[in-house]
């Protein structure tokens, strides 16, 4: 596994496992322009596990080309996070389990109407598993004087 940046692979895995930020996935559309889609994810066994509707534009693009870029990071300072590249695989199996885990992770018992709506369409969902090929981490907290005494500590969200 190729890594670059201030965090070790174990730190990257911890960040991805603990973070509640969505996974931004990029792929190339048929017109040659990049597409970026935000997805809820579960990070397990060194891979991202997501769900999307089987007819979504993202799934259609991934069927044609499984190569993706990705990023997990906050939108506000202090800036830190993980980005990289990998390959996506699609399957009809495991979507219900992955969706339930994602609902718990991102909604945590809140917004039961959204959870019910998502589960009502689970038969039409596919599992997207992204296997990273390389990671790049960044952490500008020390530059922004947010946590100067903890420069080497990986953030927990």
TrEMBL record:
Fetch the SUPFAM superfamilies from UniProt: FMN-binding split barrel
| InterPro entries (alphabetical) | Split_barrel_FMN-bd
Q: Sorted alphabetically, which Gene3D superfamilies does this protein's record hold? A: Electron Transport, Fmn-binding Protein, Chain A
Q: What is this protein called?
A: Pyridoxamine 5'-phosphate oxidase
Annotated source species: Halioglobus japonicus
């Amino acid at each position: 596994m190729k890594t670059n940046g201030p965090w070790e692979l174990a730190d990257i895995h911890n960040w991805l496992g603990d973070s509640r930020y969505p996974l931004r996935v990029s792929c190339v559309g048929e017109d040659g322009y990049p597409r970026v889609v935000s997805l809820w994810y579960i990070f397990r066994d060194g891979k991202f596990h997501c769900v999307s509707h089987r007819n979504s534009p993202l799934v259609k693009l991934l069927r044609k080309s499984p190569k993706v870029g990705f990023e997990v990071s906050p939108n506000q300072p202090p800036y830190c996070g993980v980005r990289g590249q990998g390959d996506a695989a699609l399957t009809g199996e495991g979507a219900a389990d992955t969706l339930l885990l994602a609902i718990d992770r991102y909604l945590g018992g809140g917004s039961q109407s959204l959870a019910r709506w998502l589960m009502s369409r689970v038969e039409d969902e596919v599992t997207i598993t992204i296997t990273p090929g390389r990671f790049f981490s960044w952490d500008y907290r020390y530059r922004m004087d947010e946590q100067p005494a903890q420069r080497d500590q990986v953030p927990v969200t």
